[in-house]
């Protein structure tokens, strides 16, 4: 055990609406949907939290999953409302998001740090008045590293190509496999297991 509190709130980041469902920026939503399925929970709209919310129990402890209904750059509105209502600390929150600085097929779990220009992270950090929440960074690549002429804004709001999607889906499966460790506070084990797959 790491001595750190286990995750009690998981927030997947994305943009609402069917036109964004398949876009790279919604990778956090994709994983949140799978985690809810794994925990036997279903999302329902909770306007007080500006989110779709799913509630589950694991080993007798409650776990809340959320997908904000605001656009990405206002994700802190949902995150802040949920954290306050459930009386959690930032250290008990995991934010799942797409990451330009990692290639498709790569993933990193870390606590704290900057937002690296990610508007969702920036807004949550502001809402929490703390950077100490956990981040699960799902690699989507960068248009430059993938040899694409798109600017970043267009890139994240488009769907990944088939080979990239296959890599992202493999990462989502790896994240699902370590979720029980995260919900028990076994961060060292989760990090080792997740990051091992990046070497493949």
From TrEMBL:
Its main location: cytoplasm. GO terms for cellular component: cytoplasm. One of its GO terms (biological process) is protein quality control for misfolded or incompletely synthesized proteins. The keyword Coiled coil does not apply. It comes from the Bacteria. Keywords: Cytoplasm, Hydrolase, RNA-binding, tRNA-binding. It catalyses: an N-acyl-L-alpha-aminoacyl-tRNA + H2O = an N-acyl-L-amino acid + a tRNA + H(+). SUPFAM superfamilies: Peptidyl-tRNA hydrolase-like. The record marks 98 as: Stabilizes the basic form of H active site to accept a proton. It is an enzyme of class 3 (hydrolase). It is found in: Cytoplasm. PROSITE patterns: PEPT_TRNA_HYDROL_1, PEPT_TRNA_HYDROL_2. The keyword Glycosyltransferase does not apply. One of its GO terms (molecular function) is peptidyl-tRNA hydrolase activity. The active site is at 25 (proton acceptor). NCBIfam families: pth. Catalyzes the release of premature peptidyl moieties from peptidyl-tRNA molecules trapped in stalled 50S ribosomal subunits, and thus maintains levels of free tRNAs and 50S ribosomes. This is Peptidyl-tRNA hydrolase.
């Amino acid at each position: 055990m790491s001595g750190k509190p286990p995750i009690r709130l998981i927030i997947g980041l994305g943009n609402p609406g069917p036109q964004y469902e398949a876009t790279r920026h919604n990778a956090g939503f994709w994983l949140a949907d799978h985690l809810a399925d794994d925990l036997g929970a279903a999302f329902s709209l909770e306007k007080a939290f500006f989110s779709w919310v799913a509630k589950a129990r694991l080993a007798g402890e409650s776990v809340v999953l959320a997908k904000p209904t605001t656009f990405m750059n206002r994700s802190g509105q949902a995150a802040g409302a949920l954290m306050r209502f459930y009386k959690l600390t930032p250290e008990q929150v995991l934010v799942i998001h797409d990451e330009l600085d990692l290639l498709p097929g790569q993933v990193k779990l870390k606590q704290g740090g900057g937002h690296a220009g990610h508007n969702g992270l920036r807004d949550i950090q502001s809402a929490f008045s703390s950077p100490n929440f956990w981040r699960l960074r799902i690699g989507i690549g960068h248009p430059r590293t993938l040899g694409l002429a798109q600017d970043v804004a267009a890139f994240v709001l488009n769907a990944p190509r088939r080979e990239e999607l296959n890599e992202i889906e493999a990462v989502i499966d790896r994240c699902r496999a370590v979720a029980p460790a995260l919900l028990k506070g076994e961060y060292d084990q989760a990090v080792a297991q997740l990051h091992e797959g990046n070497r493949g």
